[in-house]
Specification:
By secondary structure, the chain is α/β, with parallel strands linked by helices. The protein folds into 2 domains: about 1-140, Rossmann fold (3-Layer(aba) Sandwich), CATH 3.40.50; about 145-285, Rossmann fold, CATH 3.40.50. The chain contains 8 helices and 14 strands. It has helices at about 10-20, 60-75, 105-115, 145-155, 170-180, 225-235, 255-260, 290-295; strands at about 1-5, 25-30, 35-40, 50-55, 80-85, 120-125, 140, 160-165, 185-190, 200-205, 210-220, 240-245, 265-270, 280-285. The strands form 3 sheets. A 7-stranded mixed β-sheet has the order 10-9-8-11-12-13-14, sandwiched between helices. A 5-stranded parallel β-sheet has the order 1-4-5-6-7, sandwiched between helices. β11 (about 210-220), α6 and β12 form a beta-alpha-beta unit. Bound molecules: ribose-5-phosphate. Ribose-5-phosphate binds near residues 165, 198, 217, 220 and 224. This is ribose-phosphate diphosphokinase. It holds the Pfam family Pribosyltran_N. InterPro entries: Pribosyltran_N, PRTase-like, PRTase_dom, Rib-P_diPkinase.
């Protein structure tokens, strides 16, 4: 097995390779003077199973093109099999046609990703489980939830409630609460499609005096969690801890979280941060062991 990591997932790639007692393969990743992406895999032997790691993080379209070029280079180099690890699959929120005239974007992206034949996909916490249906090859969907459960089991959960921040998270939040032996409350959230503004309309039970845990698949603008925290603090809850699989690191969002009523944000390293700033409220858990466990089965 050889590990090839694109520019979106260098740090995670190194962790995964190290855990497998391997090194990342040397690749030249750059741009031609006309701004086109340039990829040159410098592996000496292509007679192998190639693991191609690339998160579709910002700049999304650039990382997407780089992924496709790397997959094509592996195929043409003659690898036996390509296993693509896409820790965060971009465009997954565009999993429906919300208004006439919009594309089914995630299906288009799935097609583009498969221009070179990929034998297996490994990803984490998809926004919508049905997205696997847009892929021809098997998709293994892993989850950061076991990492979050391990974290919370070590903390004081007395007087704690799990809150599902929107309808889409009800199932996952309920099963998360059950695993921790906690009860769950449901938020009624509305998002204005024209400007993205989030409004919290209500909650289905009393939460006064409870500490709150919320789990979600991603933070993008931060509005869902920041607005929910505001709403919950008005109901006089205690500490609010949030665990999110993918932090998209939209510029300025972590700064907003630091100023918000959220007390702690636990994320994973599915998406690499470009700045090295330290944030007081941020804790990062690595998904490398979860991915490595899956890769050992290949
Ligand atoms: C919504 O369906 C998702 O699960 C997340 O709650 C949402 O994507 C978060 O987005 P934002 O941070 O922009 O509110």
């Amino acid at each position: 097995m050889k590990i090839f990591s694109g520019s979106a997932s260098q740090k995670l790639g190194i962790k995964i390779a190290n855990d497998l007692n391997l090194s990342l393969e040397k690749i030249y990743l750059g741009r031609f003077s006309n701004d086109e992406s340039q990829v040159w895999l410098k592996a000496e032997d292509f007679n192998t199973t190639a693991v191609l790691i690339q998160s579709l993080s910002r700049p999304v379209d650039e990382h997407l093109v780089q992924f496709c070029l790397m997959a094509d280079a592996l195929k043409r180099g003659g690898v036996k099999k390509i296993v693509a690890v896409i820790p965060y699959l971009a465009y997954s929120k565009q999993d429906k046609i919300f208004r006439t005239g919009e594309p089914l974007s995630v299906k288009v992206i799935a097609k583009i990703i498969q221009t070179a034949k990929i034998n297996k996909f490994i990803t984490l916490d998809l926004h919508n489980k049905a997205i696997v249906g847009f892929f021809e090859s098997p998709v293994i969907e892993l989850s950061a939830i076991p990492l979050f459960l391990e974290y919370f089991r070590k903390s004081n959960l007395k007087n704690t409630l799990v809150v599902a921040p929107d309808a889409g998270s009800i199932k996952a939040s309920t099963s998360f609460a059950q695993s921790l032996g906690l009860e769950v409350a449901y938020i009624d959230k509305k998002r204005d499609l024209s400007n993205g503004k989030v409004s919290i309309l209500g909650i289905n039970r009393q939460v006064k005096g409870n500490n709150i845990v919320m789990v979600d698949d991603m933070i993008s603008t931060g509005s869902t969690l920041i607005e929910t925290a505001k709403f919950l603090k008005k109901q006089r809850v205690g500490k609010i801890t949030v665990a999110v699989s993918h932090h998209l690191f939209v510029p300025g969002v972590q700064e907003k979280i630091e100023q918000s009523l959220i007390d702690k944000l636990i994320i994973t390293d599915t998406i690499e941060r470009s700045n090295k700033k330290q944030y007081k409220k941020l804790k990062v858990l690595s998904v490398a062991p979860i991915i490595v466990k899956e890769l050992r089965k290949i």
